[in-house]
Fold these 2 entries.
Entry 1:
Amino acid sequence: MTTHDVIVVGAGVTGLTAAWRLAQAGKDVLVLEARDRVGGRLRTEAHGAPGAEADFEIGGQWVSPDQDALIGILDELRLPTYPRFREGESLYVDKAGAAHRFGEELPLGESTLAAIGQLTKTLDELAAAMDPARPWDLDDAAHLDSVSFRAWLERQCDDPVAVDNIALYIGPAMLTKPAHAFSALQAVQMAASAGSFSNLVDADVILDRRVVGGLQRVPLTLAERLGDRVRLGQDVTLVEWDEDGAVVHVGAEIHAARRLVLAVPPTLVRRIRFSPELPAEHRMAREHQSFGLVIKVQAQYETPFWRAEGLSGTGFAPWELVHEVYDNTPEGEQRGTLVGFVSDERADAIGRLPDEERRRQVLGSLATYFGDAALEPITYVESDWQHQELTGGAYGTSFDLGGLTRWGAALREPLGPIEFGSSDVAGHGFQHVDGGVRVGEEIARAILDGGLRPLGATRSAGGDLRAVALDAERREPVGQG
């Protein structure tokens, strides 16, 4: 058995940020990660023909100017960034499948643009009135949480094209769920977390910059600084806890700590058995959350051919298989890369297809934007997080109808010695790496401000943790139920 001040479960951005801040304060920290790598939903992989491989960011990758926490840690770790390519015109594919070039304004009729403007104004006003960390406090929150975002939009606007376009930005593009599957309140929180709905839909804001070498360099650098405090391949199956601290089981190994941080998505907390069990409200809060589904597709070509045609590589299409696409070429790279996204019900459908047929349909959708030149990439890469047990989807979790007001507050509530957190429960930066950094720093601050009592210093209904730990060493390891 080992003993520590704090044990952190999960070596994503939240867990590693919390661990690093605690280690900087002189605390004895142990990080346990079930995977064989750090980074969680951040990952950079090499793909391509031998000798011509290139790095592809499989998970999150962009940095926006409002993401102060992420920018701060990038500066602290001395990780440089570069701007996303955005020169030239963008593309918009209409419902008939025709691609239209445009500059600042979508190529839609005046009445539809006016309707989009009015919906944007309404969402901006709601977002401005909301604290994204406490969305249930918004006036009329209960009503907004009882109606789907799609139904709310249709009540606000009788222009179906305007509705489809606004729904795209929060449904498929952000929460990666169809707009009928989450509430209007959840949509407003998504907008408020980015500062406004206008920020959320502005690709030049939300997708501003990238990190040289990939955004996974943040957790990789933090893990390097933490050194042997980070242990991989450590799947926690049981947590025994009381007010004194927690005992964590990993196979036959046992670790005890005065504080425990569960830095995993809410849905993955359920993989762990607790003794005593979590209170019903904690369990229900996590059972009513789910990941969205999205397949991130990247196609690399000999050259960024679209640039020669005066195109930025940016495209949108509410009705197309690939609903949005961007130039994803790394700075200084001669080859050109496009990144696109297939989400929610469309991700369900093509996820069932054989690999070659799925690739054919995705490239066919890219060709709808860019023509036949898009059909022949030299490298094609898919990231499908829904088939990874230790994630279960992307980009993050959100509630079903009514869940945010009923259980949202429970997600961040500490339980005895246990703190919970990930980007899924952030206010500002919700579902983004920025949110993960913020939550990690908030958890570390709460632990440091609250102090750390000596392990086993008091007794409570759960028993003395030192005695529990010693008893656990004598028992057979408990598997996951």
Note: The longest strand covers residues 253-262.
Entry 2:
Amino acid sequence: MKSLALLAACGCVLLIDAPVSGEDRPDVDCDNAQVQMEMTYCAEQDFIAADKLLNTQYKKTRDLTRARDEDADPSTKGAEKALVAAQRAWVTYRDAQCASYGFQARGGSMEPMLIYGCQADLTAKRTEELKELTEEGN
């Protein structure tokens, strides 16, 4: 009985010490991911990269809408406020949509990969939408 308790305690320590995020996996070749853990890590990295691009573009777009509001007639101001509201709603949509998408593999090891992939895809699309808002004539 003591052996079983000791073994269980050791297993818990192993689980606690297991890396949780991809920052601990610099040796993964995302062009040749072979196992689920690597594929999930790579999908997470894609999402992280897409999110960084989104945040950079959002700041540019928000700065532009703020500048447009400053130059606008008082009756036509509100571009920045509308952008902020849209972005907040979009984040809520993205997260809910991707959680829903993950249900294809609910409870399985593939679920996080599906969610990260969905988030990366929708985030890249949103970045393009934000870029469109900064083009002249908009």
Note: The two ends are 72 Å apart (CA to CA).
